[in-house]
Specification:
There is one protein chain. The protein contains 6 helices and 9 strands; from the N terminus they run E-H-E-H-E-H-E-H-E-H-E-H-E-E-E. By secondary structure, the chain is α/β, with parallel strands linked by helices. It folds into 2 domains: 119 residues, Tetrapyrrole methylase, N-terminal domain (Cobalt-precorrin-4 Transmethylase, domain 1, 3-Layer(aba) Sandwich); 58 residues. The structure holds S-adenosylmethionine (SAM).
């Protein structure tokens, strides 16, 4: 299995217990750069996988494929962890890696250990409280929406459809024993619990 592990914003104490356990118990740990390697260092020896910042698509694809080959070879020996700054699913190399792996090695299984993202770290460090809707941008177009407190999921979906969103995921009680995740639009219920989220994508 290939496990994306969130390493938090930059302090080796801001990794979760789960992240530390996965790093300690993986057959191999990869990271995309030096900062990530340093964050992993108290728990495991990590190898840097090269992900160059180039716009040459052919060169990029060749390198990504080489990296995918390497990961697959290692995953035959046991779990392979890939440590990422912040959270693996937010603006991260992990998403690209998953895309490439699914293309060339669709049988490889994935898991993600969430990390403390720069988005929440920022608020903690600067004493900013966000209690109304907010936007996170890197300058690209907005294509995702995360709607908290999804007590009336279908109503929310209808509104989002009018805004051009067409893919939805409903979830409740994530990471708990009562966890619910529904990815089929037709199965999303009328009523939700307070601890629920609707995710929408354009
Ligand atoms: C490629 S994104 C990685 C985001 C990361 N996956 C996360 O969940 O925070 C890199 C950007 O995240 C932000 N970032 C990450 N760590 C940060 C930190 N410790 N302090 C401030 N910004 C940070 C910066 O805006 C940086 O340009």
């Amino acid at each position: 299995m290939l496990i994306g592990v969130g390493l938090g914003p930059g302090d080796p104490e801001l990794l979760t217990l789960k992240a530390v356990n996965v790093l300690k118990n993986s057959a191999k740990v990869y990271v995309p750069g030096r900062l990530a390697k340093e964050l992993v260092a108290p728990y495991a020896e990590a190898e840097i996988l090269d992900f160059p910042m180039t716009r040459d698509l052919d060169a990029l694809n060749t390198l990504w494929k080489e990296n995918a080959d390497k990961l697959v070879e290692e995953s035959k020996k046991g779990d392979v962890a890939f440590g990422l700054i912040g959270d693996p699913n937010f603006f991260s190399t992990f998403s690209h890696l998953k895309r490439i792996m699914r293309k060339y090695y669709p049988d490889v299984e994935f898991a993600t250990v969430p990390g403390i993202s720069s988005i929440t770290s920022f608020a903690a460090r600067t004493d900013v409280a966000v209690d109304t809707s907010f936007e996170v941008t890197d300058g690209s177009e907005i294509e995702h929406k995360i709607h908290l407190k999804a007590r009336h999921p279908r109503k929310i979906m209808e509104k989002l459809e009018a805004e051009g969103y067409n893919e939805f995921i409903f979830s409740e009680w994530l990471f708990s024993e009562k966890e619910v995740i529904i990815k089929e639009k037709e199965k999303i219920p009328e009523e939700g619990n307070y601890f629920s989220i609707i995710y929408a994508k354009k």
